[in-house]
Amino acid sequence: MKTKLLAGMLAALFLLGACGGTGRSGGANVLEALPANNPENAAPGSVAGEFVFAVSRDADPILIEAAQEFAQELEARTNGALTARVELTIAPDADLLAGRAGLALLSKKRQLAFCHSLAGTATPFMYNNFSNFLMRANARNTMRILEFSLREEHDLLPLAAFYQGAHHLLVDFSPGGYQHFEGVDIILSEDADTGASFSRLVGAEGAISTFDSDSARLEQFILGEGNAAELSLEIFADIEEDFPYQVHLIASYHNLTPAWLVADAALIDGLSPHLRAEVAELTAYMASRINTGFRERDRAAFAALNEMPNIAVVHEFSNVRNRVFNTLPPLDEDADKRERLARDLLEIMRRTA
């Protein structure tokens, strides 16, 4: 039921545009201050034919298969009037920015860096769980600010954010809250933002080491090189034996990068209402397939963990989360509009239930 409801919301947002909301920027409502983008002013039906749908070569198979299904359905539904050619590429963001692609699935954090606001949706500790991610990343106010930023800076349009898994925390102590990470030695992925967040948590007495892969981080944890390790759930599918001692897996979702579907604004604006509706509905179906695929993978991993008595899974662990968020460095007087808008977006997302 929740998946179908989300699909309907995505289609409605895509077709009708976003409006209203809350937020502050220099004492004013940042959403009210945004100029209205009106795609209806574009010449409908001026765009037809084939465009490139760029996807990372190293994207998860769930993402690649969903993109290919989107392309197949688009051609079938429009009787070939509008077709997408899926290309697996090294940098779909670069293809989109250079005009080589009309649509791109941005699944890596580095691919979001060209837009401050887009990159902000991958801020550590932004999401509490899967449902919270869907509500915050695809909220009407989130999409409105992102549309303004992407249109103004790059003439692009955000269509939807998809869940593609998250990193969690394996610890060798009994956790009660993030305040208990002070003085902890933690093994993290090689992500500067996550490292900066945890450096504030562990403090001067703690230590941070980084390794690129889940397997390397788990190995270091087993060797006793840290009290905590950042891991994705997939790694537990390869563990055949229970831990020899009691550990806790905190379902923290603290490091979650959305997979963003972003389009050339001119492509979407130039479509006839009928073709725009087809793209909107297929985007909603794509969201359902991707989110369901990754959630089923998560559920299988949690089920496997439940068979390991020495790994206790902690699902409710959201207290003092704002301690990290509220210590984001303040913007200086020279911060440009893009940085300020990105910070406003973070505040609005954080306040979304």
Biggest sheet statistics: 6 strands, mixed
Number of strands: 11
Name given to the CATH homologous superfamily of the largest domain: Bacterial extracellular solute-binding protein, family 7
Strand order of the largest sheet: 7-6-8-5-9-11
Task: State the end-to-end distance.
Answer: 19 Å
Provide the structure class.
alpha/beta
What is the CATH-assigned architecture of the largest domain? 3-Layer(aba) Sandwich
Average pLDDT across residues?
83
How much β-strand is present in the residues? 15-25%
Radius of gyration, whole Å: 21 Å
CATH topology of the largest domain: D-Maltodextrin-Binding Protein, domain 2
- What coarse outline follows from CA principal-axis ratios? globular
CATH class of the largest domain: Alpha Beta
Number of helices: 13
Uncertain segments are: 1-47
Estimate percent helicity. 40-55%
> What is the count of structural domains?
2
Note the topology.
Layout: H1 2-16, H2 30-33, E1 49-56, H3 61-77, E2 82-89, H4 92-97, E3 103-106, H5 116-120, H6 130-137, H7 140-154, E4 156-162, E5 167-171, E6 185-188, H8 192-202, E7 207-210, H9 214-222, E8 228-232, E9 247-255, E10 259-264, H10 265-269, H11 273-305, E11 311-314, H12 321-325, H13 337-351
Parallel strand pairs: 1-2, 1-3, 6-7, 6-8, 9-11
Antiparallel strand pairs: 3-10, 4-10, 5-8, 5-9
Helix pairs in contact: 1-11, 3-11, 7-13
